[in-house]
Amino acid sequence: MTSPDSPPLVSPSPCPAPPPSLPSSPMPSSPAPSSASSLPALPSLPPTGDVMVLALGRKKQRVLIALSILPNLFLAFLLSSDPLVTLSPPHHCHLPGPPPSPEALKASLPWEKGGRPGDNGSLSQCRQYVNGSRSAAAECEAGWDYNVTEGLRNNIVTEWDLVCGQYWLVPVEEVCFILGILTGCLSLGFAADRLGRSKTLLTSLTLSVVFGVLVCVSPYPSIFIVMRFCLAAASAGVYLTLYITRLELCESSLRLLVTMMAGLMTVAGELLLLAVALGCQSWRGLLGAGAAPLTLFLCYGVPGVFPESPRWLLLSERSADMSSFTERRNSNRDMRDDESFTELDSEPAPSSHPHLSFHELLYSRNIWKNLCVLGFTSFISHGISHCYSSFRGDVKGTAPSFYWTYLLSVCAGGGAWLLLWATVDRYGRRGILLLSMTMTGLASLILLGLMKYLSETAITVFSVLGLFSSQATASLCILFTAEIMPTIIRGTGVGAVLSLGCVGRLTSPLMDLRNHYGYFLHHVVYSSLALLAVLSILLLPESKRKPLPQTLADGEQYRRPPLGRRRRDNVPLLATPNPET
Asked: What spans are recorded as compositionally biased (Pro residues) (predicted)?
């Protein structure tokens, strides 16, 4: 006889399910199908972003990461080719007859004083004597002769004679190109959050190929500038979408390594860009060599080749895309004892796109604070890089060669990525960002304060140090932003920080337009702001080995503890009871 308190016996035959208030028997005997089906479902946790990534499988995850890194090799051709395309070589007025000797040039061209300190002047590049008389000089009448020793033999400057009175078109093209990157980061970053990473990537790739072809066949400078603006916007969209998709495909232990590999791939593309430029010697062929390979990556739009980001799918809750994870779970249920597939059962109802509450976003103070600090740091680090590249020429009056400046900038970027890979996971994002920004400010202060007492070697060393640290700061700012911005606004947040970096870069063509007049004040302002950025970095949280936030509520939790927080003593023997309670 079984007592009323004993658990019910389970028989092989079907029997009614026990009431919910009574516990089920822990006996190892197998219950009947009807009993198991009538038991109440155990509460399951909603799937997390890391679970969705692991559901892809390790092999497929690494294949997708490799596919997201490869396009950076050719994006460098489109995003880093502006210095080669707009390089202005030495030139002078075209003189009739055979190539003139140096004595004939001195007799036909007036002498002009230099505009920079230490520059003794040179033969005029825009004027010539009239009828062989030294009493009167006029503008060039028969065009210009170019002495191309560096870069492309045929670029937009030499093809359309964008010198002297038409030189203002070169800074305008540079400004429009940077504004195109700014526009692409903002608009396509927002589109990646609302429409999805995959759709935005495919759209950006298509536009990059189309505008890349239109740039190569541009017949006039005005059409070229408009097409370059559109090409910059589309290429920036490809870069941004691949960046955040790549990060969302990684767990916390792989994020820095994968981002470093993508950065080194971009550095390799910039070095390959210079090699191709030396081989083809034409700006049309150079830009075509960057746009043509992007056609191959249009295959990412084929279903199954480059699927949507799992973390974005978790927010969007699309039934069609989530069914692939359900099918994979069902097919592996008998082969795996993995709780991650069980967690995928609790999927909410599908919707068209992630729901974003603008009212909640407006009052997300911590997210806005982090975004403002990182955007300000990105603005300073991108803007001050140009000061280090041109400091020697501004001070000594003798600008270094183009190859030296270009290779120094590219190698500094590669070295910065290696430094970040070796230190950031060990000492934290915030600590290394603080160190690199401090080095940037100190290099500027030493160059500005001791400018008259430093030799050329010392000026070169501190300029390289400042360039290296500023590029490390700029790269780490983007990674930091992508890690602490929630998935629902990650594209918009990273795009905003990249756009503020573009605003800092705008000072470079504006200084070129003014022939670097006022460079000292320009450098002083950026150095002062760099010291202010050092203090603001202290307000940032730490994202090392932390999961990527998904919602605005998750992003609000990424905050730095208050400096004056006092530790509480929770030892019971030392706790003093409150008599009022």
From this structure: 1-31
Number of CB atoms found within 10 A of residue 279's CB: 11
pLDDT given for residue 41 in this prediction: 47
For the stretch 47-63, pLDDT in tens is 566 677 777 788 888 99
Inter-CA distances, 140 with 124, 155, 156, 165, Å: 10, 20, 19, 10
**Is 23 or 133 the better-scoring residue by pLDDT?**
133
Q: Are 314 and 52 in contact (CB under 8 A)?
A: yes
Q: Give bridge partners of residue 111 from the DSSP assignment.
A: 123
- Count of C-beta atoms within a 10 Å radius of residue 367: 23
Closest CA relative to residue 65, chosen from 296, 226, 267, 255 = 255
Give this prediction's pTM. 0.80
Nearby residues of 229 by Cβ (< 8 Å), 6 or more positions away: 176, 177, 179, 180, 183
Nearest to 52, CA basis, from 305, 330, 343: 343
Angle, CA of 422, 428 and 432, to the nearest 5°: 70
pLDDT digits (tens, 9 = 90+) for 109-123: 777 776 555 556 677
Buried/exposed code over 217-250 (b: 16+ C-beta within 10 A; e: otherwise): ebeebeebbbbbbbbbbbbbbbbbbbbbbbbbbb
